[in-house]
């Protein structure tokens, strides 16, 4: 199975980074966040207080999946799956968390979309049926 090493997800949509390790033997799989060199896990033990991060490893499986619940744009970056061999074996995974798309329109143009939008309680913003955020300019 070929697993993607470039993963894009939307803000708030759970991200999965899949690492497969064949013939692990007595070695251990770890996940590390490269931007700050923070070791997130060793085996299934987590070394972060951020509860959004979790390792999924079914018994007798070759899969070591890093799950990031409710990712934010700040979670974008490179994550490393590494095996405790000497020398270390590792693979880098790139996570790209994309935010909402905002479209600024004049009030006149925004009125044309009124039939297809929902006005929020403050009246300043509407959302159309395909999920774009429309902000009125005053």
Describe the structure.
The protein is mainly beta and 138 residues long. The protein has two domains: 6-98, Immunoglobulin-like, CATH 2.60.40.10; 102-136, no CATH class. The protein is built from one helix and 13 strands; from the N terminus they run E-E-E-E-E-E-E-E-E-E-H-E-E-E. The chain has one helix at 107-112, and strands at 6-10, 15-20, 29-33, 38-42, 45-46, 53-56, 63-68, 77-83, 89-98, 102-105, 117-119, 125-128, 133-136. Strands 1-9-8-3-4-5 form a six-stranded mixed sheet, with no helix packed on it. Strand 11 (117-119) and strand 12 form a beta hairpin. The radius of gyration is 21 Å and the shape is globular. The termini are far apart. Mean pLDDT is 80; it is low at 114-138.
Which structural class should the secondary elements be placed in?
mainly beta
- For the record, the CATH class of the largest domain is Mainly Beta
Mind telling me the CATH superfamily name of the largest domain? Immunoglobulins
Low-confidence stretches: 114-138
Q: Percent range for helical residues?
A: under 10%
Assign the CATH topology of the largest domain.
Immunoglobulin-like
Give the averaged pLDDT, no decimals.
80
Protein name: Ig-like domain-containing protein
Domain Ig-like: 1-92
Organism: Tetragonisca angustula
